[in-house]
Design goal:
Layout (H helix, E strand, L loop, with lengths): L1 H11 L4 H66 L3 H5 L11 H15 L3 E8 L10 E3 L8 H6 L5 E10 L2 E12 L9 E7 L1 H8 L5 E6 L4 E4 L21 E8 L2 E11 L6 E8 L2 H49 L14 H47 L1 H19 L2 H22 L4 E2 H19 L3 E7 L9 E2 L4 H13 L6 E10 L2 E8 L6 H12 L9 H14 L4 E7 L3 E9 L10
Parallel strand pairs: 1-2, 12-14
Antiparallel strand pairs: 1-5, 3-4, 4-5, 6-7, 6-10, 8-9, 9-10, 11-13, 14-15, 15-17, 16-17
Helix pairs in contact: 2-4, 2-7, 7-8, 8-14, 9-10, 9-11, 10-11, 11-12
């Protein structure tokens, strides 16, 4: 339990406070409400669909009952015409005796049925007996019945059946006139007679269409002959999904003309016939009403979710803004801006926290002010000491160099080479002028420093001749006249290379001086091909160079350079020494590039 709670707290801590509130609200309120609301909406839709199916089934049963009543009453009424011996004897005789009144009785019965039954649109007796004369209700067909539509519908095979026949009505053909066809029992093998009773479509409509649903009726697999909506007349009867016309009853959704509806289909076998009616009621308004109800449920659900969500969202923004105000004040204090304005409103725990923060910041500000005052005073003292130490370190170079230069001039004078002595004195003057000039300045240029080194090496060449050669190289894109450096940095390194690397060497000596800018730093290298140093000697030199108390006369120059770089450039300046026995030594000075863009040529 504790482990689960820890994971829960760890998960929530990954989000902002406002996001945590919204997340908890969403998980604990929105998801359950949506789940229950959608489940109830689905349940309501299912119940409504079931109710609409039940209503459609009830309508189908009602229409079936009406149709059964109409067809049964018409069939029973036709028995009054065909039930006696009049038809049997009259239509079988080649010389019918009209004196007994059979023809009049039959005609009278048919007239009575037509006049007193509103369902009957027409009634006729057809016979192929040429001895029978035509009348209002009796038609003689001595040449046969092939031209009659009712005979084509029956095929002459069924003794009694119901069918639908087309009839012209108001300049339009109505394909749906329900018709009863019965073969008259005649005591003859030569002649036949048929009773055809056509029902009035308007009567059927008045009896059946007492509903807002669409009623469709067909016989067997024939097209629809009756429809409360005329556009379905002559169309195939649609069957509900999962059902068939052979079923006695089925209900469910049906797709008609691309429109989804709820339908109920039932069948009726007409009284004393083999004709089977298929009756279907279709509710096209069911699904729109169900969708409307579902939309209403969803709107209510959306409002029920959106209203508290808006309130929670507003509260989370309000709380988030207060926390951001507090955080901004803390950030302001963290970056050293202690001028915090009291714009925090309210009277809750966040307000108390803000007041405590403000009081703490004010105390820190007071302590920091006192600390900086003491630090500034201490820094002034350190700066004075560094300036004095820098001047002392720079002044130690001049006597040492002047002694060596004068010694060189003395040796030249002993040999009597006056011209060379004059040149040496001239170069000595240039060297002394440079030293005196840089003593009162903090920085010189790389060009002047390299020129001074060139003068020094030229003086040494006067003494040692071809034994000493040198080169000074500056990389492309670097303008030495625009590169500021400390004065007298390179000469001690070059002198050290000459004295300790090349002077006692038997082979031809070479000193190479290079300047380049890489990675926003100035790299100055002094490389010789002299005796070099062993690894332990190099370690001892580095130790003496960084610790003045261990320095000897041989390493005092390098120590001075190292100290001056450290004092001027801090951690950005470096001095590296690499050496290999019998191959030479490489000294690298790494100084921050202080030239800006002016030090580069375009």
């Amino acid at each position: 339990m504790m482990k689960m709670r820890k994971k829960y707290n760890l998960f929530l801590s990954k989000f902002r406070i406002a996001q945590q509130i919204l997340l908890v609200f969403f998980v604990c309120t929105v998801i359950p409400m949506l789940f229950l609301g959608l489940a109830e909406t689905h349940r309501a839709g299912t119940l409504l669909a079931g109710q609409y199916e039940s209503l459609a089934e009830a309508d189908s049963v009602r229409v079936r009952s009406i149709l059964f009543d109409i067809t049964t009453s018409i069939y029973t009424a036709s028995d009054t015409i065909l039930g006696g011996t009049d038809c049997m004897e009259l239509f079988a005789s080649e010389q019918p005796a009209f004196e007994d009144g059979a023809w009049e009785r039959i005609s009278s019965s048919m007239d009575s049925l037509f006049q007193h039954n509103a369902a009957v649109a027409s009634i006729h007796l057809y016979t192929d007996n040429p001895a029978i004369t035509d009348g209002s209700y009796i038609t003689s067909c001595p040449d046969g019945y092939e031209g009659e539509d009712w005979y084509a519908a029956s095929g002459g095979r069924h003794w009694q059946m119901w069918t639908s026949l087309a009839v012209a009505e108001r300049d339009q053909e109505d394909p749906g006139q329900l018709t009863l066809i019965r073969r008259v029992p005649v005591a003859s093998r030569v002649y036949t007679a048929w009773l055809v009773i056509r029902l009035d479509s308007n009567y059927l409509k008045n009896r059946i269409s007492d509903t807002s649903r669409t009623v469709l009726i067909s016989i067997e697999d024939a097209p629809v002959f009756y429809s409360s909506d005329r556009k379905w007349l002559g169309e195939e009867l649609p069957v509900p999904e999962g059902g068939a016309k052979t079923d006695s009853a089925c209900s469910g959704p049906v797709l008609i003309g691309g429109e989804r509806a709820i339908a109920s289909l039932c069948t009726l076998t007409a009284y004393r016939t083999d004709s089977r009616f298929c009756i279907e009621t279709v509710d096209f308004a069911a699904y729109p009403e169900i969708r409307g109800t579902i939309v209403t449920y969803l709107v209510i659900l959306a409002f029920a979710v959106a209203a508290p969500a808006a309130i929670i969202l507003g509260f989370s923004f309000y709380l988030g803004s207060r926390i951001r105000t507090l955080r901004a004040a803390m950030h302001q204090a963290r970056v050293g801006d202690y001028n915090i304005i009291d714009s925090f409103q309210g009277n809750d725990e966040l307000k108390d926290t803000f007041q405590d923060l403000k009081a703490t910041v004010e105390r820190i500000h007071e302590k920091e002010a006192r600390y900086y005052e003491a630090k500034i005073a201490r820094q002034k003292l350190i700066n004075r000491q560094q300036q004095m130490e820098f001047k002392m370190l720079a002044s130690q170079i001049n006597p040492h160099f002047l002694y060596n230069t004068l010694e060189t001039i003395r040796m030249l004078a002993l040999t009597g080479k006056n011209k060379e002595t004059s040149s040496a004195i001239k170069m000595l003057g240039r060297s002394m002028h440079y030293v005196l000039e840089t003593t009162t300045t903090e920085f010189t240029t790389l060009e002047k420093e390299l020129d001074y080194v060139r003068t020094y090496l030229s003086i040494q060449q006067l003494r040692f001749g071809e034994r000493i050669r040198f080169s000074i190289e500056v990389s492309e894109g670097l303008d030495p006249a625009q590169i500021p450096i400390l004065p007298l940095l390179l000469q001690p390194v070059v002198e050290n290379a000459f004295l300790h690397g090349l002077r006692d060497s038997d082979r031809e000596g070479f000193i190479r001086i290079c300047g380049a800018v890489r990675e926003d730093a100035l790299y100055l290298t002094v490389q010789d091909n002299g005796a070099g140093m062993k690894e332990d000697e190099l370690e001892q030199l580095n130790e003496r160079m960084h610790h003045p108390e261990q320095s000897s006369s041989e390493s005092i120059g390098l120590h001075n350079i190292c100290q001056r770089i450290r004092l001027c450039y801090k951690e950005q300046g470096q001095m590296r020494i690499e050496s290999t026995p019998e191959q030479g030594t490489l000294v690298t000075l790494i100084l921050p590039d202080m030239s800006g863009e002016e030090g580069r040529t375009q």
